[in-house]
Amino acid sequence: MVNVASINKVLAQPETIHVDHLTALADVVKEYPYFQAVRSMYLKGLKNESSPLYNKELQRTAAHTTDRSVLFDFITSESFIQNEVSDHIKLLQQEETTSDSDAISGSALVEEDLNASKNFTQVTDADLFEKKKETSIEEEPLEFDKNETYSFSQWLQLTSLKPIDRKEVPQQKNPAVVDEEVEETPKAKEVIQEVDDRARKMARIDQFLAEKPKIKPRKSSSNTVNISNHYEDPSPFMTETLAKVYLAQKNYSKALKAYKVLVLQHPEKSGFFADQIQEIKNLQSNPTQ
């Protein structure tokens, strides 16, 4: 059964989300996939824990989002990236101080930690952890910054999940029940919609880029120049994140090209990029590993 009080607390104070909230959030997301506030908090929780489920859940969230520019702004916002580690440590220290004078409280803390560990085990997939051991560079959570809209767009194009048409999805049986049990608080709405203005601007930019206006040469011109390659060449937009995107999708040829471009752009990190290139070549030689 969903812990309504726990869900409400996370929505009211997104910065307090922790591993022991993930099971409850996952249950709500599964039953109500278009409950954007809860889905966003679940995504943030997975990111905070560096969960191997994060990348796949980000794909699902994009599929359930009508305006992906809003999603991009959300995952690159400070409220999403920030993880209140120091506050959590202080809280644990206070609890430890209390446990010194109260044996019962100390036992409760141990039980709580065990339950938290159990909950995280339930919400994650053991098979994904096994794969992470084999090809960790492919499954680490992807991180995008505000200047990497191209990388994010490429990643979404490469994923097999497509935007879901709400018209084709049957109506929830009792949507009012969710509204009564889990209320979207003003603070939660602010976290989700804090960048709506910029999202509209980005949508217009995406529309312009999608149309790709090209200059048609005059009929009288004897020398024509093919400028299509200028649009297709991603080198000016190449980032380390985009290289990881290609690698995560097992597009090894593009991943190799990406890291070679990065070597030229960032010679100070050439050693690191060279290691990535070698690892990709190893994956190409041994695809079953």
Give the arrangement of secondary structure elements.
Layout: H1 4-12, H2 22-31, H3 36-48, H4 54-63, H5 68-75, H6 78-81, H7 85-101, H8 103-123, H9 126-134, H10 136-139, H11 149-158, H12 175-181, H13 186-193, H14 196-211, H15 228-232, H16 240-248, H17 252-265, H18 270-285
Helix pairs in contact: 2-3, 3-4, 7-8, 11-16, 16-17, 17-18
Give a verbal description of the structure.
The chain is mostly helical and 289 residues long. The chain has two domains: 4-165 and 180-201, no CATH class; 250-289, no CATH class. The chain has 18 helices and no strands. The longest helix is centred in the middle third of the chain and has 21 residues, at 103-123. The protein is globular and about 55 Å long. The two termini are 40 Å apart.
The computed structural class is mainly alpha
SSE arrangement, N to C: HHHHHHHHHHHHHHHHHH
Taking pLDDT < 50 over at least 5 consecutive residues as the criterion, the unreliable ranges are: 84-93, 99-110, 123-135, 173-184, 227-232
Mean pLDDT: 66
Count of β-strands: 0
Beta-strand percentage? under 5%
Distance between the termini: 40 Å
Number of domains: 2
Cα gyration radius (Å): 23 Å
Helix content: 55-70%
Tertiary shape:
globular
- Please tally the helical runs, counting DSSP H or I stretches of 4 or more residues: 18
The largest sheet is: none
